[in-house]
Amino acid sequence: MGNINVRRIPDEVHRAIKARAKANDRSTEEEVRTILAEAVLPEDQAGAGDLLWSIWAGLDIPDDTFERDKTPYQPIILE
User: Fold this and answer.
1) Can you give 58-78 as a three-state secondary structure string?
2) How many domains does the chain have?
């Protein structure tokens, strides 16, 4: 992974990023990574599941009875 060192960030921007990080329960560094990723990566970027599904979607399979499960992922909570 690459590193970027950004200097001379205006104080109000720095405070806003820190406040946003706290609101999202993330470190300031993690919040900046998230902001950068949201700014430069397309929202509709295909994930691995989408790419695999596209391989099968164009095939003419008799009795095609399977559909992609679009249920949101729910992380497991271990206590």
Assistant:
1) CCCCCCCCCCCCCCCCCCCCC
2) 1
